[in-house]
Specification:
The complex is a heterodimer of chains A (about 280) and B (about 250).
Chain A lengths: L7 H11 L1 H24 L15 H7 L4 H14 L15 H12 L7 H9 L9 H12 L3 H18 L3 H9 L9 H4 L1 H8 L3 H12 L7 H14 L3 H20 L23
Helix pairs in contact in A: 4-5, 5-7, 7-8, 8-9, 9-11, 11-12, 13-14
Chain B lengths: L1 H13 L2 H21 L5 H34 L2 H6 L5 H30 L4 H28 L3 H27 L6 H17 L9 H6 L4 H28 L3
Helix pairs in contact in B: 1-5, 2-3, 2-5, 3-5, 3-6, 3-7, 5-6, 5-10, 6-7, 6-10, 7-8
Classes of the chains: A mainly alpha (about 280), B mainly alpha (about 250).
Chain lengths: ~280, ~250
């Protein structure tokens, strides 16, 4: 039937609406939409399981998933570890973290890139702030292994590990073991070479501390007048051993004075941390 | 020949390939810089590494899809038949397509390299190496996709096959290292078999894990071998694929 006031387009729409299968489809759509709304009402409270430190995958899995670009995958996973526990608006206290898992993550990622300072800095500056001091040993173990055989390039992290062992773990034996790795390493700051002496002093082992300082004193070309002044102070005030090395110190001072009078510039000491370890810059 | 090269470039412009992919790369760079800025340390290294990897994937996937469907369309619309009715040999036609596609690839890689330079060059030699290897990787992938497009009848099939070869090629180093250990399976004979099988497969699959390593951008190359490996791989495999494509195309009946 044609209505005179209805044009052809509207007639077609009207016929479509009256079509039985179309009515069924619309009904099915409305029912499915209602069912989806009911499901949404139930499921919107169901959240994905959010752990803190993710499970550590195998080394093969990680290498396979890197698709030949291990550097990028290293950085993606490292960023994931940095944010673990603090995603979806959560903030998790560090004592709740599984440090054993973190230790294994660090090891795994070192296999992809062990030159980067990203992981040691995250371990040292962030995860070491844990309220559970027993967990610090995982950080110290990691830093120890990360730097093994690379003291010259990674001296900063050896020093940090020694600091953590001494001041957070209260384990001066471990601190001494670590600090001793920096003895005699050339071209690193003098304070890092002297670190073992400071730990010995802390343990009351003044003779051993003096031995280390004497080792350094043997090479006056490697340290400045300021450094010599500090070592004199350390021996006299903190070790109380000035008499034992007084003659040696005076001889070195005479050499330094002679060099200064001859116009030889004083040794420029490198004292600041490396530029790429995230440490505050030394005052100018 | 030059007409066909120009036609491929025009098609790429018509399909908004340059515009689309470069927008994608810029978006990837932006997301990478946001991600990188959340890092505690080495934020620049993070940004560079993420941008380099994502840009590489965008370019390669874009090229595969473009070549797959461009060639399919050329077959379906009888463009190939028309071209072959002219005084042009089949070898020249394949080479002209390859030259057209590598021009497209190079035009996509160059702005990416420029963008990476703007993001920061931490190691000049490494940056140069990464840039050259990205160009060669794209050329090699063009050869793979062109070969697939000439041998597989379906556009989707071409894209999937090329993506599969690309993925396997990027993982080939891992596969070889894994099977070489000989401890993958409990039965020693199976380990030997896996090792031989993987060696056999690697004979005909390029090692794309030698190309465009993000670590070069950060630490530089470790030795000259980094350069020679990808250079020789490209020098050997591109002619191999081109020859295979020409042989297959010459045997095709229209």
């Amino acid at each position: 039937m044609r209505w005179p006031w209805v044009n052809d387009g509207s007639q077609a729409k009207w016929n479509l609406r009256r079509d039985r299968s179309m009515q069924l489809a619309v009904l099915a759509f409305a029912l499915a939409l209602g069912a989806q709304a009911a499901f949404w009402n139930h499921s919107r409270a169901v959240m994905p399981e959010m752990g803190i430190v993710p499970a550590v995958p195998g080394e093969r899995t990680v290498r396979a998933l890197s698709f030949g670009d291990e550097e990028t995958f290293f950085r993606l996973l490292a960023l994931n570890i940095q944010n673990s526990g603090d995603t979806f608006g959560r903030f998790t206290a560090l004592y709740k973290y599984d440090f054993n898992k973190l230790y294994h993550w660090f090891h795994l990622l070192d296999g992809l890139d062990n030159e980067s300072n990203y992981l040691p800095s995250m371990a040292t500056y962030y995860f070491s702030q844990t309220q559970n001091r027993d967990n610090i040993r995982y950080i110290v173990d990691y830093l120890d292994e990360h730097t093994l055989g690379r003291e010259k390039e990674k001296w900063w992290w050896v020093a940090q590990a020694s600091y953590l062992a001494s001041h957070k773990m209260k384990d001066t034996t471990r601190a001494l073991e670590l600090a001793s790795r920096l003895r005699g390493i050339q071209d690193i700051p003098m304070w890092a070479q002297q670190l073992a002496a400071f730990v010995h002093e802390e343990r009351g082992e003044f003779d051993e501390a003096l031995t280390i300082i004497q080792e350094i004193l043997r090479d006056p070309d490697k340290y400045s007048q300021g450094e010599l002044n500090f070592m004199k102070y350390f021996i006299e005030e903190r070790l109380g051993k000035l008499k034992e090395v007084d003659e040696e110190l005076q001889q070195i001072q005479r050499m330094k004075d002679a060099a200064r009078e001859a116009g030889v510039p004083d040794v420029q000491m490198r004292e600041a941390p490396p530029p790429n370890v995230g440490a505050p810059k030394a005052p100018m | 020949m030059w007409t066909n090269i120009r036609y491929v470039l025009l098609t790429a412009m018509r399909d908004r390939l340059f515009f689309g992919l470069l927008i994608g790369i810029l978006a990837a760079a932006y997301i990478s810089s946001v991600l990188g800025s959340t890092a505690m340390l080495e934020t620049e290294q993070m940004t560079i590494s993420f941008t380099a990897a994502s840009a590489r994937v965008i370019i390669m996937v874009g090229l595969i899809v473009f070549i797959g469907f461009h060639m399919r369309n050329a077959f379906d619309a009888r463009e190939i038949d028309v071209l072959l009715s002219r005084p042009i040999s089949r070898t020249t036609l394949v080479l002209s397509y390859w030259l057209g596609f590598i021009s497209v690839a190079t035009l996509l890689v160059l702005p990416t390299v420029a963008m990476m330079a703007v993001l920061g060059v931490l190691n000049q030699t490494g940056f140069l190496l990464w840039s050259v290897s990205l160009v060669l990787e794209s050329w090699l992938l063009v050869s793979v996709a062109l070969f697939a497009a000439l041998t597989i009848r379906s556009g989707v099939g071409t894209v999937l096959a090329s993506l599969a070869i690309y993925t396997i090629s990027r993982m080939m180093g891992f596969f070889l290292a894994t099977t070489k250990t000989g401890i993958l399976f409990d039965v020693q004979e199976v380990n030997y078999g896996a090792k031989w099988l993987m060696n056999g497969i690697s004979l005909v699959v390029p090692r794309l894990d030698f190309f465009a390593k993000s670590q070069w951008l950060i630490y530089g190359a470790k030795s000259y071998e980094d350069l020679t490996l990808f250079l020789f791989q490209a020098l050997v495999f591109i002619p191999l694929l081109l020859a295979a494509s020409v042989i297959d195309f010459k045997r095709k009946q229209f």
